[in-house]
Amino acid sequence: MREFDEKNEIGDTFPDEHVLAASDDLIPWCANFANYLASDVVPSDFSFRQRKKFMNDVKKFFSDEPYLYRSCADGLIFRCMPEVEMLSILEACHSSHVDGHHSDIRTIYKIFQCGYYWQTIHQDANESSKACNRCQRDGGISRRQELPLNPILVIDEFDVWSIDFMFPFGSSHGMKYILLDVDYVSKLVEAIALANNEGRSVTAFFKKIILSRFGTPRAIIR
After folding, report:
1. What pTM does this model have?
2. Residue 185 maps to which CATH number?
3. Which domain holds residue 94?
């Protein structure tokens, strides 16, 4: 038993002296603010001007373990994100399947809607938009991509009606179509089953239902 222990003696030293060493690239940009909130320690290598600016900026941050948050003048609170998560956030808010490859300003707005913040967010969003392959090939969204709009001025209830047919349906007592009339203001729906979709059937329905109940409309949209 003793020979087994000697042969399998466990060493108490690490072969690599840098096991616990941290690289400067892995230190997040908000580490100084988090350290100050936890221990009131200001980095010793700061100059007088840097120290003064740091003390002014640290007032905007507060810690709620394990996250650091930044409060803005408008009362909004954002979570400070480390560098390792910035790229995935930019891609999700700019080029994911549910986003439309908008400009850097729109991308920043969506990031703020998600509640995220970091110091170089404007620069990173601009560079991400410029590096996007689809944005460079398609260009920005202009008025040429906009669909034409036909504004409708609705003054009062039952002034404007929308009319349309629903089909096809299986024949029921000879009826194959459903005629729908919808008022644009009240969203009132009038419907009737018809055997055909001819104009005289529509005219008869209007005279019997719409004109007798609601009066003559100003416009009928088909």
Report:
1. 0.48
2. 3.30.420.10
3. 25-138
